[in-house]
Amino acid sequence: MTVKIIAQIAGDGIGPEVIRQGRKAADAATAKTGTDLEWRTFPWGASHYLSTGEVLPDDAVDRLSECDSIYLGAIGDPKVKPGILERGILLTLRFGFDMYVNLRPARAFPKVPVPIAGADGHSIDMLVVRENTEDLYMGLGATGDGSIDEAIEAERGLYDLTGSVKLETGHRMAMQMGIATEPAIRRITATACRFARGRGDDSILLATKANAMPQLYGFWEEIAADEAKAQGIPMETMNVDAMCYHAVRSPWDFGTVLCPNLFGDIVSDLFAGITGGLGVAAGGNLGDGLGMFEPIHGSAPDIAGTDRANPLAAILSAGLMLDSLGEHRAAKTIDRAVETFLSENDGDDLPREMGGQVGTEAVGDRVAEIIERIGEETP
User: Fold this and answer.
1) Whole-prediction pTM value?
2) 3 state DSSP class of 144
3) Residue 208 belongs to what domain range?
4) Which residues are bridge partners to 41 per DSSP?
5) Does one domain contain both 122 and 156?
6) Most exposed: 110, 188, 201, 315, by fewest CB within 10 Å?
7) What is the pLDDT of residue 147?
8) Are 266 and 329 in a shared domain?
9) Are residues 261 and 127 in the same domain?
10) What's the pLDDT at 114?
11) pLDDT of the residue at 302
């Protein structure tokens, strides 16, 4: 029997509630594939920080390196200043394991209302492939009272960046740096091409803003176009503002969308809203090694403990995780089970987020039952 070691970080708010259901689905899906999932639980998140003052222990990366994947609930709590946990956990792990791909699929599911006129009869199935280590999310910035004199340092899987910035205005000011490098653009473009080919898309679409920021995004366009040509996949470009406009008018026209880091964060949430909300929005952070998978919704502390959280996004994220581990049959079974659950139910039998009366735990139980029922049928 094959053993896969999964690091479980339940996180904050509804994180522990939804991650239990995703774990339940993953265990059910792998039960008949000859793979055993060994779960290792780590306590990191708001409660750990508030009780210990520690965001991550010094040996966190080493301990996680012993695992095959990370399964994350959600990070964030109003008792903790914004940015401490997000940067201290999420970005530390993304950068530490060079997870240069943020994968965010967005598709319309049965019985999930799509808030777009004329959507009936159209298939909506989009995939955002977001560069995950550069752009304006490098974490390089400063504020100053009339001037900024800042040393610049950043470690990435591809390089170590060092330098300094010196600015004078005479006024209070802030500076945030966006960086793009050729190897980083090439590898994410190649990844987008690979996913497009696997989905059957005949091209990729790059979200850009080169007309306003030619140095950064003009460079992106140049390198991405050259790499897509080398991969044998046509690439089109669209200004990100125009993309948002057209996406809410005809989302069925979109397929694989390649995005720099900032645009990918924004566009993927828009696409999630178009396809029915964050309750069905899965996400994954991938690289050439350890990956981390999480629903893209937040910790929603206002509904924590009320059995109202929709666990389907967490369940779908578990499917993405299994797919990345080579457990393709189990991943397909989870996808089919979610679609079957939504197809077979309506009204009060849907999750509370979708206007039904079924709580978090019960949704997880029903999906797990369907997985057991259809597991043998999935090729």
Assistant:
1) 0.94
2) strand
3) 114-138+178-275
4) 8
5) no
6) 110
7) 97
8) no
9) yes
10) 86
11) 93
Token readout for 323 is 């797919």
For residue 374, the model assigns a pLDDT of 87
Q: Write down the residue that tokens 């309750």 correspond to.
A: 279
- CA torsion through residues 303, 311, 339, 284, sign: positive
Closest CA to 21 of 370, 374, 360: 360
CA distance 287 to 268: 19
Angle, in degrees to the nearest 10, between helices 15-30 and 312-324: 50
Q: By CB neighbour count within 10 A (0-12 exposed, 13-18 middle, 19+ buried), where does 130 fall?
A: buried
The DSSP H or E segment spanning 146 is: strand 141-155
For 189-272, list the strands marked E by DSSP.
Answer: 204-208, 235-239, 256-259
Give the β-pairing of 141-155 and 284-286: unpaired
> In sequence order, what are the beta bridge partners of 284?
103, 293
Instruction: Confirm whether 108 is domain-assigned.
Output: no
Q: Structure tokens of 367?
A: 């999906």
**Tokens encoding 26:** 């993953």
Overall size of the chain counted in residues: 379
Give every residue of the chain whose pLDDT is below 70, as ranges.
376, 378-379
SS3 125: strand
> Distance between CA atoms of 280 and 296, rounded to whole angstroms?
9
Residue holding tokens 């950068």?
Answer: 95
Tokens of 354: 């979708």
- Domain assignment present for 183: yes
Query: 62: Cβ–Cβ under 8 A, 6 or more apart, which residues?
Result: none
- Residue 378: predicted pLDDT: 64
